[in-house]
Amino acid sequence: MHAARSFLAGFALAATGALAGSFQVSPVRVALTAEAPTAAIAVRNESKTDPVVVQLRPVDWRQQDGEDRYEPSATLIATPPIFTLAPGGTQTVRVGLRRAEPGAVQRSFRLYITEVPAAPRRGFQGLQVALNIGIPVFVHPKERTGGPLAFRAGAPAGRTLALKATNPANAHVQLIEARLLDEGDGVLATTGQPRYLLAGQTATWRLELARQPKGRLRIEARTDAGPLAVPVEPETGTAKP
């Protein structure tokens, strides 16, 4: 997938009378290296009638206790910081680093591309929504180390099971979809929305099981590094499911 429309990465507009712009971004993920310390992102205004003012906001991206944390970045640079897109127009955004040297662990950023709302038209009464797209920007490590995602689970509490995935590598993994299966090959649950796990981080899902598990559990998953099929280990101090 090389382009993202704003309604996919922005807000779902359930209310009627909502006013929002529309723009497209390509690509939807950027990788920087010492050899290629800059990259170009195309932002296109999908409207045929209205201009769109767009602002760029680069942030440092880390994860803590399974949650994303963002802070204004002094390392990632994006230009122009603010611009106006004419109807049907395209702007090339340049992304780069103040320090491009790769380290032992992948560095992670996001570039937020945000609509600056225009003044509502005269007589408009409704909800005005500013569209916001967060593009992941990664700086690859000198050498990738570590294994595939490792999964653990505690004993089910009724039909609910806590599934944990840990990324032991020194670079991110995007878990696109995962299916939890048991020895009967039946699908017990799926993880749902895609999720990034940064280097060394752990994420937890609370899954609703289709039935009680039978025997050992395993995961079949799609990731941005390819397919994955691994056993689910029991949490320390818990009985095997």
List keywords for this structure.
21 strands, 8-stranded mixed β-sheet, mainly beta
Quick structural overview:
Helices cover 2% and strands 51% of the residues. The chain is mostly beta strands and 241 residues long. It is globular.
Structural features, described:
The protein has 241 residues and is mainly beta. Strands 14, 15, 16, 17, 18, 19, 20 and 21 form an 8-stranded mixed sheet that branches. It is globular, with a radius of gyration of 21 Å.
Mean pLDDT: 86
Number of strands: 21
Shape: globular
Q: What's the helix count?
A: 1
Along the chain, the helix and strand elements come as EHEEEEEEEEEEEEEEEEEEEE
Poorly predicted ranges: 5-20
Radius of gyration: 21 Å
Sheet/helix structural class: mainly beta
Strand share of the residues?
A: over 45%
Q: Helix and strand layout, with pairings?
A:
Layout: E1 4-5, H1 6-9, E2 18-19, E3 23-26, E4 30-32, E5 38-45, E6 52-64, E7 67-72, E8 76-79, E9 82-85, E10 90-97, E11 107-116, E12 127-128, E13 132-139, E14 150-153, E15 160-166, E16 173-181, E17 187-190, E18 195-197, E19 202-208, E20 218-223, E21 226-234
Parallel strand pairs: 2-12, 4-13, 14-21
Antiparallel strand pairs: 1-3, 3-5, 5-10, 6-7, 6-9, 6-11, 8-10, 11-13, 14-15, 15-19, 16-17, 16-18, 16-20, 20-21
